[in-house]
Amino acid sequence: MGRGRIVCALAAAVIAGCQPAFDSVDLVAVSTPPVEVTVRDFLVELPAGTAVVVATVPRSGNRHDYDDETVVDLVSDDPDVMDVFGRPTAREFVLVGIDAGETCLRVHIDGMVRDCIDVVVEPPAAD
Amino acid sequence: MCTAGVSAGGGWRVVVVWAGALLAGGCVEADATADGELRQGRFGHVCVGDGDAACDDGLPPEVFPEVFAVGARLDATYLPDDGDRLPLPRVQPGSTSSLRAGGGAGWIAARPGWAVWLAIDANDVVVDLRHVLLAKVDAIAVASEEVDDLARVALAPGDRLALRAAPQDGVGRALGGSLTYAWRLEGQGVAQIVSVAERRAIVLEALEPGTAVLRVTAGGVTRALDVIVDEPQHGGED
């Protein structure tokens, strides 16, 4: 390997080492639905017809944390099971159970898919 | 006739919301309001048509209904607390499996369980939301001005009685939303319905002594009521 290639490889390693490495995204419920829902970083469960507002916090696996410039987006694999709406506040989303079923909530960090959170939408719940 | 507007806001906002509701589906009104769950404004109940038991004579209720009849038409408006900017957020169901479009005004409650209204601003983001409960009609209460739920109707020939039907769920809660009502009277010679029979309220007139059965159907449930027309009393005449 030539000296140039070694320098380039070292430079790339240094640059990558300065970036956060995705570990997970925390989901924090900021609304209180009328029925019990589960909001975790690996699972969302809610009955069809209900909605919960969540705030997202991306967690880095190295010592470089995500900053406020990092763009987080949540995208449902199946909007007929769960739909996702944006909020005026960055990193907040409204998760709406549409119909009973299972799907995946894709976590996008700066446009890159980084995670898939399991989603279970249960049949409509009475009070 | 539309006779009332939105009370939870003043001035031009009332006019805008009311006019918007009219454009959306005809004669609709909103008055009773409830806080959005994100506390950014208030949702208003819209009286769609004249079959909403929560709306007395088509006028908005004093309290925002919390439970609505499956099969009923309903709608909502939203006024943000800082709503001095146009356009106002639009209101739509979170899930059209719960509240589906059915042509005409409002949305149709499609299944029992919770549904959620979303207030969405011009940037297509949700600024507020509110859940409402949808329940199957389990019973129909028939009331007069004096009695909340009549067991039977007793009249003398020539008497007229205004009756009003209201849907209830399995635990006796009054259900909001506009349903279609069908009234039928068996025993036409005994009494007759003297007002339009497809509305929630009718006027019954007693004709001749005898018995009849009055049936009202709404939301897939029928309530039958005995109508007894007694012999006229000739007080004191010999």
- Just give the CATH class of chain A: Mainly Beta
Total domain modules of chain B: 2
**How many strand segments of chain B?**
17
The main pleated sheet of chain A reads as: 5 strands, mixed
Q: Would you tell me the overall average pLDDT of chain A?
A: 90
Total helices of chain A: the number is 1
- Stretches with pLDDT under 50, minimum 5 residues of chain A: none
Q: Based on CA inertia axes, which overall geometry of chain A fits?
A: elongated
Weakly predicted, low-confidence segments of chain B = 1-29
In terms of DSSP E residues, the strand content of chain B is 35-45%
* Helical segment count of chain B: 1
Helix-strand sequence of chain A: HEEEEEEEEE
**Which two chains have the most extensive interface, and how many residues on each?**
A-B, 26 and 26 residues
Strand order of the largest sheet of chain A: 2-3-9-8-5
As a percent range, the share of helical residues of chain A equals: 10-25%
Written as H for each helix and E for each strand, in order along the chain, the element string of chain B is HEEEEEEEEEEEEEEEEE
CATH-defined fold name of chain A? Immunoglobulin-like
* CA(first)-CA(last) distance of chain B: 51 Å
Structural class of chain A: mainly beta
| CATH architecture tag of chain A | Sandwich
